[in-house]
Amino acid sequence: MIDSKQPQFMIDIVGESLAPSRYVLTNNVGIAGGLSWELKRNDIILFDKQGELKYGLDWPDAQGRFVSEGDFVSWLATHRQQGPVSLVLLMDKGESMNDLALPKPIAPMS
Fold first, then answer.
1. Please, how many CA atoms are within 13 Å of residue 18, restricted to the half-sphere of its CB?
2. pLDDT tens digits, one per residue of 14-33
3. Which domain of life does the UniProt lineage start with (predicted)?
4. Whole-model pTM?
5. From CA 64, how far away is CA 41, in angstroms rounded?
6. DSSP letters along 22-68, please?
7. Phi first, then psi: what are they for 92, rounded to 5°?
8. What is the dihedral of CA 61, 19, 37, 9, to 10 degrees?
9. Across-strand partners of 25?
């Protein structure tokens, strides 16, 4: 991520790839807002970190708006059958994708 405070630049670059996704998840509240705005979607799901939205995510009407890291593998197994799932992550400096306990992507069906 070039600038986590203004994620629109990155979203402009990858937006076309994200558009067909049935589910879009992110681990950053600011990026979630940017994704919602740029993709014109109101269904962005927070992954692993709730940030300042923790209180609101505890409300019954927010069910399904957050997926914990521990629940992700089973959530993904269920939801990837409903369509493509995209994960947009803000990585810490020095962190790599190999450091994350994520399941391997599956190839899209032709």
1. 24
2. 778 888 999 999 999 988 98
3. Bacteria
4. 0.80
5. 15
6. SEEEES-HHHHHHHHHHHT-S--EEES--GGGHHHHTSGGGTTSEE-
7. -70, 155
8. 140
9. 45, 87
The sign of the dihedral angle between the CA atoms of 2, 35, 80, 77 is positive
Q: In what order do the strands lie in the sheet with 23-26?
A: 66-67, 45-47, 23-26, 85-88
Amino acid occupying residue 72: F
pLDDT tens-digit series, residues 45-57: 999 888 888 888 8
Q: Give the integer Cα–Cα distance in Å for 16 and 69.
A: 26
In whole angstroms, how far apart are CA 79 and each of 54, 63, 72, 75, 76?
23, 15, 10, 6, 5
The CA-to-CA distance between both ends of the chain, in Å, stands at: 30
